[in-house]
Amino acid sequence: MQLTKHENITFTNATVYLSGQAFIKCTFVACTLVLREPLYHMDGCRFERCNWHIDRTVMWGNRESLRDLRWLVDMLEKNQQQLESAREQQAPGHAGGQAQAEAGA
Question: What is the number of structural domains in the chain?
Fold first, then answer.
């Protein structure tokens, strides 16, 4: 099966069906991402305030199914950490600066 390729696209407030698609360096903002079939590809994507609907069968004893789910969870955790780090660095009155201002008052 050939995947439909999407590259450098921003999806906003959309329901996106991932199965049968390849997403490269795409950004998803406030989307609902639907994953039903294991045939999809994501590389270098970012997610902001997205909800996931995952409807997958994990067959008993099938290590590949478990590996796919672990990859998805790991990818989401890394993206969440990157977003949190970026917000902390961009926030005005960064915690260190705020503590200094309060100490001088």
Answer: 1
HSE-up (13 A, CA, CB side) for residue 20: 4
Give every CB contact of residue 15 below 8 A, 6+ residues apart in sequence: 31, 32, 34
Q: Which of 2-11, 40-49, 65-74 has the highest mean pLDDT?
A: 2-11
Q: How far is CA 91 from CA 49, 85, 94, 97, in A?
A: 18, 10, 6, 11
> pTM for the complete prediction?
0.68
User: Which tokens in the block code for residue 99?
Assistant: 């503590």
Does residue 51 fall inside a structural domain?
Answer: yes
Contact assessment for residue 13 and residue 32, using Cβ atoms and an 8 Å cutoff:
no
- Count of C-beta atoms within a 10 Å radius of residue 35: 19
- Give the residue numbers spanning the domain of 17: 4-80
pLDDT, tens digit (0-9, with 9 covering 90-100), for 13-45: 999 999 999 999 999 999 999 988 778 898 989
**Lowest-confidence region among 17-26, 48-57, 60-69:** 60-69
